Amino acid sequence: MSVQSTSEYVLELKNITKRFPGVLALDNVQLQLRAGEVHVLLGENGAGKSTLIKVITGAYLLDEGQVYLDGEPVTIKSPLDSQAMGIGVVYQEFNLMPHLTVAENIFMGKEPMKMKKMGLLDKSTMEKESKKYLEMVGASLDPNTKVGTCGVAVQQLVEIAKALAANARILILDEPTAVLTNEEITKLFEVVQRLKKQNVAVIYISHRLEEIREIGDRITVLRDGTYVETVDVDQASFDKDYLIRLMVGRSIDNQFPKAQVSIGSELLRVEHLHSKGKVEDVSFTLHAGEILGVAGLVGAGRTETAKIIFGADSDATGDIYVEGKKVSIKSPLDAIRNKIGFAPEDRKTEGLMQGMSITDNVIATCFQKVRKAGVRSTSMCNRLVQGLVKDLRIVTPEITQQVRKLSGGNQQKVVLAKWIASDSKIVILDEPTRGIDVGAKVEVYQLMSELVEKGYGIIMISSELPELLAMSDRILVMYEHKLQGELQRREATQEKILKLASGGVL
To answer: Where is this protein found (predicted)?
Structure first.
């Protein structure tokens, strides 16, 4: 894996500048990467991290500056160039073929052949070599397994093995823990430590400040497309507030702006919700002005419960009451009619129409509001959406902007705008801050506080214990499809939540 060189750095970026029409995306950015280190790339959404990675991997051509490998200047014109130079990348959205085997994915495009003129695939060699690379990442996996049958964590290891099979000595991991459980994160960190010992250099992109202390050696911070500072993790003494100041250019005095609101009347009551193998006998209430947190391990039934309430589980049974009145919710349309909104965990595929504009996404839930004589009124649409963009502080050049071009935080705000526009009073937020940076998280928390001040009731499903503890008025804890316990804000602790989430009792 290692290459002899007199240079201190296996990869060095000097004065990297990248322009797009009307936008200076990167402005004289620096980065130095040593063999066998984990170098964390930190910054808010829009800081330039993704653009920099695309320059390194050849997806974008730089406009100014120089890339050095082992001290020698190189030109990276395409992803094939970067791969040939030993640079691998694992994106959040994997580049795997689900219908092919693990071995076929690992060696895609570089399959070992026997009797090349005949075009015969050497399957035995491919399987043998695949096992070697899978062992390097600690994956006990049959190379003949179809990738589509593997879980997310295993697919991620296949992606890393695929990069190593392409002789990657520089590996870029883009938000690698975003969809992993705590146990899977621990496994991933073990893999990264193993790669360090093999002298692989890792660029690690993450929004999760708590991970950095455990996995990182050094941190480079970008802000608004510019280089801010590089610090050793030890030298930072792990001061999260200092890193936040570097990221956002200001202090965030209150990371959890929780409004103190008097809890009002009952908005929602669910009784004996059940869906075979998903949810068993779940009952609870939600009140106006309340943020009801829902905790639990992956597979505990949290999202499944939300989908029943939103009418997205046709096999479910149980009773639902809205403002004291029993209602029948058999579809999402029924839920919307009863003032219930749902912001799903996967906002990109389930919560938004990525190729459509902010306007089209927002009015999708309230078309009746913007009709005039039965026809969509452009002026009414514009007034409604422009007002929401202003109120929710959505950063966009125009309301006709496609939502796929917005940052994660702004996309989440569009999801909220959609339900505010529909006059929902009950809003279910499933992992509302997943994959967004610390500054955007604070803005989402602020918007949640503003909603409950107006009498909304919010159900917040989250795997982030600090935000559950800080933002919730009550916390429900689920275990194996059932409610295991309920904690009031004043009594809730991480230890109690984890005990209940693991099947314990208090």
So the answer is: Cell membrane
